[in-house]
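Journal club prep, notes for RB
We'll compare a predicted complex against what the paper describes. Inputs for the 3,4-dihydroxyphenylalanine case:
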Amino acid sequence: MEEKIRALKEQLEADAAGVRSKEELSAFWQKYLGKNGSVAGLMKGLRDVPKEERPAAGKTINECKAWAEARYQQLNAEIERIELEARNRAEAVDITLPGTRREMGNLHPITLVKNRIVDAFAGMGFDVYEGPEIEDDDHNFTRLNVPKNHPARDMQDTFYVAEDIVLRTQTSGGQIRVMDRQKPPIKVLVPGRVFRSDSDATHSPMFHQMEGLVVDRHITLCDLQGMLDQFVQALFGAGVKTRLRPSYFPFTEPSVEVDVSCFECGGKGCPLCKHTGWIEVLGAGIVHHSVLENCGIDPNVYSGLAFGIGIERIAMLKYGINNIGLLFENDLRFLKQFKD
Ligand code: DAH
């Protein structure tokens, strides 16, 4: 019996060394401690032991069983520890890794510039009005003092939707719509998309304008220049000045082209201002008396000023963009650069 037990213990230790998992442990238990296991086999073998030796042999077998059970518990604890460690390793979270960030969007440069312009004029008391993008001939041309067959129609290449319906070529039609519904004093901005059959590095068939209209008693070019000074300083910096040059628009008389002193070189001359010290930014003028009359406003009592700003042009100048197409390609690598 002693011999059998020693052989069993030896075998058990050898097997124990190979137990690595719960499954193997359970097989180990079956082999030694199960109903038909080795220890039970020893118990059965008691029958063949002479009667007087049986109590001692039984005791030895019970000790062996207790020892085998203790080894089993040890192995069990060991395997639980190993499995827990493995699980911890697998589930470990490296809190020093960067998290998955939610990407922040940003406004399109056209929207940024539009907001800046609106802010600048809102500070001077301007309201905002938006008219339709599909406009009738009357508002887009005729009542702006551009009758049919007038040569000024050739200044813009118009998209026609129907005989007398166009994709508006300018936001100036908004002036008519505002004056139809509101009498002076008027101070309004009309931002919006406009359309012309024109496309190159500085022209896009769809672009944005910001119309401005002020109608009141005694409005003069002086008011115009004062307001535009405020506007260009808000966009391009405190030291920037404006200069008015005579020009022609059918709906203003006199008409002017407005330049700003070059914000790149301060007026000394550089490639941006083509060495003139000045950069053209917008068209403007004193509202033509016919336009006021067309809207039922008496030009002998009231006068007005108007201006039309190309938003892309301002954005391109402000951000140093050399091709208008970049603004509409929606390449995020480009668009992400503009935060304010
Ligand atoms: N509508 C003109 C254009 O598209 C811009 C403009 C010039 C608007 C002078 C005005 C203005 O209100 O007074 O070229």
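Talking point for the session: The beta strands are 127-128, 134-136, 160-162, 165-167, 186-195, 206-216, 242-249, 252-261, 278-287, 303-310.
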